[in-house]
Amino acid sequence: MPASRLSLPITGELIEESGLRHELIVQPDDAPLTDRRVVDGEERVLLSVVLPLDLPPGYHSLRLAETFDGSTQIIVAPQQAYLPPVLAEGACLGLGSSALYPATSGQLGRR
After folding, report:
1. Nearest alpha carbon to residue 78 among 62, 61, 59, 56
2. Smallest Cα–Cα separation from 34: which of 20, 49, 21, 24?
3. Burial zone of 17 (CB within 10 Å; 0-12 exposed, 13-18 middle, 19+ buried)
4. I need a surface site. Which of 13, 15, 23, 67 has the fewest CB within 10 A?
5. With contact defined as beta carbons under 8 Å apart, do 101 and 109 qualify?
6. How confident is the prediction for the chain on average, in pLDDT?
7. DSSP characters for 4-56?
8. pLDDT value at position 102?
9. Buried b / exposed e across 31-52, counting CB within 10 Å, b at 16+?
């Protein structure tokens, strides 16, 4: 974001996959500065912002308002993928595979 906007609050809306909406207001002064550089003659800063919500797994949208117009998708994944109970109990499932090659009337390998 432009360093000149550090004093302005960042407002937006977080929309959960379920449709539930949350209004967000972040004060840039409260967010740690992670990088600062000049881009096209303008000083820009990168802030680290932690969302004040405990989001459920899913695909959510974050939309920033007026001053910081933009949007992004936030993907929340569970700590661990689903594990069927039979595997969680230590069972071993034997899975086999085989390769099937076409064989037609003795023509295999001939040119």
Report:
1. 56
2. 49
3. middle
4. 23
5. no
6. 83
7. GGTTSPEEEEEE-TTS-EEEEEE-GGGSPEEEEEEETTEEEEEE----SS-PP
8. 62
9. beeeeeeeeeeeeebebeeeee
The model's pTM is 0.61
What is the distance between the alpha carbons of residues 31 and 72, in angstroms, rounded to a whole number?
A: 19
Residue in the block written with tokens 């949208």 = 61
Model confidence at 111, pLDDT cuts 50, 70, 90, reads low
Name the phi and psi angles at 86, rounded to 5.
-60, -35
Residue 99, C-beta contacts closer than 8 angstroms, at least 6 positions apart = none
